[in-house]
Amino acid sequence: MPMAPLYNTNGEALGECELPESIFAAPADAALLHQAVVAYLANQRQGTSATKTRGLVAGGGRKPWRQKGTGRARQGSIRAPHWRGGGIVFGPQPREYRQGLPKKARRAALRGALTEKATGAVVCVLDDLHLGEAKTKPFAAMLGRLPLADRRALVVTAAPDRNVMLSGRNLPDVVVRAASDLNAYEVLRARSLVLTKAAVAQIEEVFRP
Questions:
Q1: Distance of CA 37 to CAs 87, 107, 120, 180, 187, Å?
Q2: Share of the chain above pLDDT 70, in %
Q3: Helix, strand or coil for residue 33?
Q4: How far apart are CA 3 and CA 18, in angstroms?
Q5: CA atoms of 27 and 116, how far apart (whole Å)
Q6: What's residue 131's pLDDT?
Q7: Is 45 helix (H, G, I), strand (E, B) or coil?
Q8: For strand 153-157 and strand 192-196, is the pairing parallel, antiparallel, or unpaired?
Q9: Average pLDDT, the chain
Q10: Gap between the Cα atoms of 126 and 149, Å rounded
Q11: Whether the model pTM is above 0.70
């Protein structure tokens, strides 16, 4: 059974917490993890970049000079691509970058990512995490009292917590997520994984195979 150190918000060690074996000791498929990360990053792209072709640029309807007799190269439009202010050749156009991944594959990739973190001993568990108000300073102090491998931390709560989310969003490299919103990319990117005990139970309930 995988284990993780258990702390309170004061950074005091309370012992160890058992992690569900079906989630934190699952087989990790490198190819599936790669596919899940690529799909996640692709799905973040808006796909709204656009450039104008020569047919979309205003003007250029008149031939700039006559075809012959001027000594200059023949030109048909001042909006041709080689003219300044002309259209763009093969420029980006609005498109859909979204990549689909089956639900079972996404969850298997997440279990593999969580297993990697548990194996690397970068997971710590909080007995509870409740903030009376949304304040960044006490939240940062709480994280500073934990033996985190790196400040790039992923904090996971059992349910969306407005105070925790608002307290953590101004901290660089700190991401706050509810257990049901976890994804393989953010788990792999984090150097430290901070889970509440309730979040561990919620992860097991939602993502168990």
A1: 36, 12, 19, 18, 10
A2: 100
A3: helix
A4: 5
A5: 9
A6: 87
A7: coil
A8: parallel
A9: 93
A10: 16
A11: yes
CA dihedral 50, 56, 57, 63 (to 10 degrees): 150
| Digit-coded pLDDT (tens) for 120-136 | 888 999 998 888 899 99
> What domains does the chain contain, in order, with CATH numbers?
3-45+99-207 (3.40.1370.10), 46-96 (no CATH)
Question: Order of strands, edge to edge, in the sheet holding 123-126?
Answer: 13-18, 3-7, 123-126, 192-196, 153-157, 174-178
d(CA 93, CA 24) in angstroms, rounded, equals: 42
Does an H or E element contain 144, and which?
helix 136-144
Strand partners, 50: none
Provide the pLDDT for residue 115: 94
Contact 143, 7 (CB under 8 A): no
Say how far apart CA 153 and CA 202 lie, in whole Å. Answer: 19
Query: Torsion angle, CA of 131/137/143/149, rounded to 10 degrees?
Result: 150
Place of tokens 């901070």: 194
Per-residue model confidence (pLDDT) at position 148 = 85
Q: Which residue has the higher pLDDT, 70 or 147?
A: 70
Which of 207, 161, 153, 162 shows the shortest CA–CA distance to 180?
207
